[in-house]
Design a protein that fits this description.
The complex is a heterodimer of chains A (259) and B (285).
Chain A (H helix, E strand, L loop, with lengths): L1 H30 L10 H10 L1 H35 L1 H16 L6 H8 L5 H23 L4 H9 L4 H36 L8 H10 L3 H29 L1 H6 L3
Helix pairs in contact in A: 2-10, 3-4, 3-6, 3-8, 3-10, 5-6, 6-8, 8-10, 9-10
Chain B lengths: L19 E10 L7 E11 L4 E5 L6 H8 L7 E6 L2 E2 H6 L3 E4 L11 H5 L1 H5 L4 H14 L15 H12 L6 E5 L7 H18 L2 E6 L2 H7 L2 E6 L4 E7 L16 H15 L8 H5 L2
Parallel strand pairs in B: 3-8, 3-9, 6-7, 7-8
Antiparallel strand pairs in B: 1-2, 1-4, 4-5, 9-10
Classes of the chains: A mainly alpha (259), B alpha/beta (285).
C-alpha cells in the first residue's frame, strides 16, 4: 500500500526535476546565446549522442570492462583480506597504517606509475587502479560487518553447541553481507570513475576517458558531452546492478519496509 | 547408573534426576583492577522436572548469572551444577535445554520458519522432519500465518513468540528464560504469560524464568526464588500454590490467592518483617 502511494514521489518527482533542469538549460543556451565551447545545448548533445551512439557504446565497453575487472579483483581481494583480518587480528594490526594511507591517497594518482610498470599499451594499469580503489571500501566495510556479531547470537550459538564453522556460516557471514554491500555500492561507482580517470594519464585509446579528451581537444564539445553522458550511464548501470544484486541476496531487506 | 542410595534430602522420585541441581554455586568475576566482583555466593537450588521456577531480585543479584551458569554460557568459580544428572557442559552439548533471552535474537536474514529450524539444522535434523516440527511449533505459538515472513516484519511480541518456539524446537525438558518479556508492553506481556503457562503445560518442560516483575513471577511459577544482591545469594524460596496450569486463566490475576502470593514475594524482596524470621536479612547489614 505504502509503496504504491510513494511511487510517484520517489520516481516521478526526480524525473520531473530532471526534465525541468534540462529545459532550463536549453532555454538558457538559446536565450543567452551561450557559445557551444562554453556549454553546448542539451539538444545538440542528444543529437550528437544518438548519431555517435555506436562509438559511445564501444568506448563504454572498453572502460566498463576495465571497471568490471577492477571491481571483481578489488572486491574478491577485499573480502578475503577482511576474512583473514578477522581470523588473525595480527594481520589487521600490521596492515592498519597501510590501509589508512591507501584510503587517503587518491589512487588514480598511481596511474602514471602503473603505466610505466605494466606498459602504456595495456589496460592493466587502469584495471589495477580500479581494483585498488575498490579494495579499500570493500575491505573496511566487510571487516566491520564481520565484527558485528551480536552477543545474543553468540550466546545462542554456544547454547546450541555449534562449532566455530557453524557459527561462522550461520551468523557471522550472513551478518556481514549488508556491510559488504555498503562497500560494494560505493566501490561500484568508484571502479568506473577510477577506470575512466586512469585513461587521462596515458595508455591505449578507445575508452570513454580518452574519447572525452580527444573530442574536447578537437573542439567537438557536443561529442565530448555525449561521451560524458555515456560515462554517467555506465556508472549508473554499475550502481543499479550492485543494488539489484543486494536485493537478490538479502530479500529480508527488500521486504522489511513492506508492511 | 549406580545402585547407591540417592543423596539424603532427595525426594522419592529418584528415577528421574532433578532438572537442575545447583550445589554451593559461586561466581566471581575477576576485574582488571584487582577488585573482584562476587556475583553469586553459596547458591543451592534444586528444580524438579516439569517445575516452573522464577528467579527474582533487584539488578545485580546474580539471577541472570545463575541462569547463564545453568546454561553453561559461563562456568561457576565454585560449586557444581547438574542438569538432568549431567554436568552443565554435557547438558549443553546434548541440548538438554532450550533458551530464550530478553532480546528475541532472531537472525534477520532468515524467515520465521527457518529461524525456528535453526537449532534443528545445526544438529543435522533432516529437512522433512524440520519442516514438520517447525509447523507444529508455529501452530503452538499461533504464528502459522507468518511462517514465511522475516523477523523485521513482526512486532516485538511476535518476535519473542518465535524465539520461544525456537527454544522449544528440540523438545527440551528444561527451558531457560532470561527476562523474555522484559521489553514488551504490559498488555502483550500478560498475554504472553498466559500463553507460556499453556505451552509449558503442553510440553511438560521445567522452566527457570528470570524476571524482575513480581506479578509475572507469581502468575507463572510453582516456586519463586527471591535473591538479594552483593553478593548475589538466595534470600528466600516462596512456594506459590495457584493450581496447575489448566486453571490459570486471566481470572487468576484478580484472585485473592494471587495477591497473597504477590505480597509474600514483595515482603521477602524488600526484606520487610512479615512475621517470618528475617534473621538472614539482618545478617547482611
Amino acid at each position: 500500500m505504502k509503496q504504491t502511494a510513494s511511487l510517484p514521489r520517489t520516481i516521478l518527482a526526480p524525473i520531473l526535476l530532471g526534465v525541468l533542469a534540462v529545459a532550463l538549460w536549453q532555454l538558457a543556451v538559446v536565450v543567452l546565446e551561450i557559445k557551444p565551447f562554453v556549454l553546448p545545448s542539451p539538444v545538440s548533445i542528444a543529437t550528437e549522442f544518438s548519431s555517435s551512439v555506436s562509438s559511445v557504446w564501444a568506448a563504454s565497453l572498453v572502460t566498463g570492462a576495465n571497471a568490471l575487472i577492477g571491481l571483481l579483483i578489488g572486491a574478491i581481494v577485499g573480502i578475503i583480506a577482511a576474512i583473514i583480518a578477522t581470523v588473525l587480528p595480527i594481520t589487521d594490526e600490521l596492515s592498519a597504517p597501510l590501509v589508512a594511507a591507501a584510503s587517503v591517497i587518491p589512487i588514480v594518482a598511481l596511474a602514471p606509475v602503473f603505466y610505466t610498470m605494466f606498459g602504456a599499451d595495456k589496460e592493466t594499469a587502469r584495471q589495477l587502479v580500479a581494483a585498488l580503489a575498490v579494495f579499500i571500501p570493500v575491505y573496511l566495510n566487510t571487516l566491520r560487518g564481520l565484527r558485528q556479531a551480536r552477543p545474543v547470537h553468540r550466546d545462542l550459538m554456544r547454547a546450541y553447541g555449534a562449532s566455530a564453522w557453524q557459527t561462522t556460516r550461520a551468523v557471522t557471514l550472513p551478518g556481514a553481507v549488508p556491510f559488504l554491500f555498503i562497500g560494494l555500492r560505493i566501490a561500484s561507482s568508484l571502479a568506473v570513475i577510477s577506470a575512466l580517470i586512469g585513461e587521462y594519464f596515458g595508455g591505449p585509446i578507445g575508452g570513454l576517458g580518452k574519447s572525452i579528451t580527444s573530442a574536447a581537444a578537437s573542439s567537438n564539445y557536443s561529442l565530448a558531452y555525449a561521451y560524458v553522458l555515456g560515462a554517467i550511464l555506465l556508472g549508473l548501470v554499475f550502481y543499479v546492478v550492485t543494488l539489484g544484486l543486494e536485493r537478490l541476496v538479502s530479500p529480508h531487506r527488500a521486504s522489511a519496509s513492506a508492511p | 547408573m549406580s545402585t547407591a542410595p540417592s543423596a539424603p534430602g532427595q525426594p522419592i522420585a529418584s528415577t528421574r534426576p532433578a532438572a537442575v541441581s545447583a550445589t554451593g554455586v559461586g561466581k566471581v568475576f575477576a576485574s582488571r583492577k584487582g577488585a573482584d566482583v562476587t556475583a553469586l555466593e553459596a547458591v543451592d537450588l534444586t528444580i524438579a522436572p516439569g517445575e516452573f521456577v522464577s528467579l527474582i531480585g533487584p539488578s545485580g543479584c546474580g539471577k541472570s548469572t545463575l541462569l547463564r551458569l545453568i546454561a553453561d554460557l559461563d562456568s561457576p568459580t565454585s560449586g557444581s551444577i547438574e542438569v538432568f544428572g549431567k554436568t552443565a557442559r554435557q547438558a549443553r552439548i546434548d541440548q538438554a535445554y532450550g533458551i530464550a533471552f530478553q532480546q528475541a535474537g532472531l537472525l534477520p536474514w532468515r524467515t520465521v520458519r527457518s529461524n525456528i529450524e535453526l537449532p534443528l539444522e545445526l544438529h543435522k535434523v533432516g529437512k522433512a522432519d524440520r519442516a514438520a516440527r517447525s509447523s507444529e511449533l508455529l501452530a503452538l505459538v499461533g504464528l502459522s500465518d507468518f511462517a514465511d515472513k522475516y523477523p523485521d516484519q513482526l512486532s516485538g511480541g511476535m518476535q519473542q513468540r518465535v524465539a520461544i518456539a525456537r527454544s522449544l524446537a528440540e523438545s527440551p525438558g528444561l527451558l531457560l528464560m532470561d527476562e523474555p518479556f522484559g521489553a514488551l508492553d504490559e498488555m502483550t506481556r500478560e498475554r504472553m504469560q498466559t500463553e507460556l503457562v499453556r505451552i509449558c503445560a503442553e510440553t511438560g518442560a521445567a522452566v527457570v524464568f528470570v524476571t524482575h516483575s513480581i506479578p509475572e513471577a507469581v502468575f507463572l511459577s510453582n516456586r519463586v526464588v527471591v535473591m538479594s544482591p552483593r553478593p548475589g545469594r538466595i534470600r528466600d524460596v516462596i512456594a506459590v500454590d495457584l493450581g496447575r496450569a489448566e486453571g490459570r486463566g486471566e481470572g487468576l490475576r484478580e484472585a485473592d490467592s494471587f495477591f497473597e502470593a504477590v505480597v509474600a514475594v514483595r515482603e521477602s524482596l524488600h526484606g520487610e518483617p512479615a512475621g517470618a524470621p528475617a534473621a538472614r536479612g539482618v545478617d547482611q547489614r
